[in-house]
Amino acid sequence: MLKLKIMKNHTFNFKTNFTFKLLLVLGLFFIVPQQTEAQFFKKLAKKAQEKIDREAERRAEKRVNKKIDKEFDKAEDVLDGKKKDKKTEGKEGNSNKNEKGVNNSESTNSNEANAKSNKPTVVWSKFDFVPGDTVIFEDMPSTDEENGEFPSRWDLYKGNAEIGEVNGEPVIMFLQGGNIVPYLKNSKEDYLPEIFTIEFDVYFKEDGPGRYWLHFSDNKNQRVLYPPLEIYVNGLEISNSNKRYPGTEDLNWNVNNEGRWRHISVAYTKGKFKAYMDDTRLINIPHFEDLPTGITISAENNSINEKYLKNIRIAKGGVKYYDRVLSEGKIIVNGIKFDVNKASLKPESMGPINKIYQLMVKKPELNFSVEGHTDSDGGDETNMTLSKARGKAVMDKLISMGIASERLKFNGFGESKPLDNNSTPEGKANNRRVEFVKF
């Protein structure tokens, strides 16, 4: 009996120990995951907080960058003349503007934000063309030219060219290609000065871009340069087709073959050569290796697309605007152009207007009377009214760009103060001008 009792107690102890151990294991089974899970959630919460902090920082930086970009846009708009700077509008002398035409307080804020974001402030002009001061050759052509005849102000080198009309306006037409040179008494000599500009308008039809060339020698009367010194123009680009100079740029304009006139401008300054299409510079060569001596304008031989040419001008360069103010008290500009018998500015006028604007920003002590002048075509009274309207149009443009209105006034003198004779196209071109007279 005793033995049995002992065995029973042993069995009981065994069961008790087993049950205890089982409960301990089960307890650990439930407790350990709870501790692990708590640690897991704690780590997860920490990572979530870190992500939230990073996202908040990213969004804050994005807001700052957006604000910086907005300030840059405002500054560029003021510089480009797209809208007034409200902070300086109406204040005498634009005293709050820096020499680039940007409001100083706005520029300071932009520069502080700029320093934080390591972004440079960039000012870059793709249209800096300013026509020469004195016209030495010009042909529109004249309304006196007879339709179907060879243009009287030109000579023929190859092909053919005739006077025609496009939308009622006389033009030079290349029906099947042609090469023409200016008809000048000194054409056998170098008639291009050290500083000169050339401008003309060419037309491109809807069914094809067409191609033109501007050669920098008079191929009929002077030694033909070989390889030829020329630029190549079509409806999509302008480039130097002779050799690849550093700084030469081709630009695809994506005009979709729409019929339109394009304005071509060339500026040569003692070896520096620039070429523009409309209001964009496409070629910028710091050292042009060859010496331009004259011009030949060529159109491709293509009977499908007739080529049209008008408003050709060669002008001699001159003294910087500020130097003229110091020596003469005024600036004479014949590169500001208007629509015929109107006071509406042509886009190519912005080159000289931008220069005047920059000068007035740099020199806040300068005030100008903007005075229009015409040639002798038309009646005296009509020309007087037109000249005043043109002077006002230029004044209004400068004010819209940010120049204080009290620094400007306008006037017009019609044909009463000619600088040149009115018997030649060049003389008339020199008389059609805008003067900025210091007051």
- Would you state the CATH class of the largest domain? Mainly Beta
Q: Can you summarize the main beta sheet?
A: 8 strands, antiparallel
Q: What is the domain tally?
A: 3
Question: Taking all residues together, what is the mean pLDDT?
Answer: 77
- Oligomeric form of this entry? single chain
Specify the helix fraction band: 25-40%
Fraction of residues in β-strands? 15-25%
Shape estimate: globular
Spell out the helices and strands N to C: HHEEEEEEEEEEEEEEHEHEHEHE
Features:
439 residues; alpha+beta; Jelly Rolls; 60s Ribosomal Protein L30, Chain: A; 3 domains; six-stranded antiparallel β-sheet; 18 strands; disordered N terminus
Structure overview:
This protein is of the alpha+beta class. The chain has 3 domains: 37-124; 126-318, Sandwich (Jelly Rolls), CATH 2.60.120; 319-439, 60s Ribosomal Protein L30, Chain: A (2-Layer Sandwich), CATH 3.30.1330. 32% of the residues lie in helices and 24% in strands. It has 6 helices and 18 strands. Strands 1, 3, 4, 6, 10, 11, 12 and 14 form an 8-stranded antiparallel beta sheet that branches. Strands 2-5-13-7-8-9 form a 6-stranded antiparallel beta sheet, with no helix packed on it. 32% of the residues are buried.
